[in-house]
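Treating backbone geometry as a discrete language has practical consequences that deserve illustration. The amino acid sequence and the backbone structure tokens for this protein are reproduced below.
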Amino acid sequence: MLSVNTNVGAMVALQFLNQTQSDLQMTQSHINSGLKVASPTDNGAVYAIAQNMRGNVTGYAAVSDSLNRGVSTVDVAISAGQSISDLLNELKGKALAASDGSLDTASRNALNADFTALRDQITTIVQNASFNGTNMVDGTTANFQALASSDGTKKITVAGQTLKLSGTIVTVKTTSTISTQAKASTMVSIVNASIQNVNASLAKLASGVKKFSIQATFVGKLVDTLNAGIGNLVDADMAVESAKLQSLQVKQQLGVQALSIANSAPSITLSLFR
């Protein structure tokens, strides 16, 4: 039927052309953003899943920072412990030398001066063994905790080790001397015990660093996996989008031509009245 009031062919052609235009705009958006799901309107369910995963990635970035701070903090404590262990070994040598009953007064005084200088150096090391305001060897930090999960509920704990003088680990007192043979003889066993205690504390701190390092490595791998998963969900396949773009552009041109032909159909009616 020929009608000048209703052009069904034009309406159908226009519907297809509008659909092609919509598909073309979507494809161009995918190409411009590199994402097939850039907003909830693209795919609400996938967008929600991807956003949750992005939140986990952000959380694990904070976890990684926390673990790295933990490693650095404990590393400083270990460095302090190693220095203290070395000083204790020197103190042992001074005490052992001073325990010799054949020493003259001048030699004993010289050894005692060296001993007290080394002893006081332990205090200096302990006081300066801080990282980011945390000192794990002066008794102010019972436990150091680092984040282990993106929701903050899981933590890794490393116990502090009090390495200051007159403590339960370093039993050498702040007033200890080797000014006499008797004091020097007693000091040898005290220093020996302190050396063993400090080395045990170093082993505990080293174990803590290992826990932090293992978790940091795991978190790094987990973040990579999550990012890959997000990419699988929302990234556009550029090869597919490129092919689709070319196809839609051709389809658009054909749609325009089809609409033009449909719009010219009513003019055929004029020939019936000639």
Observations:
- DSSP finds five helices and four strands in the chain.
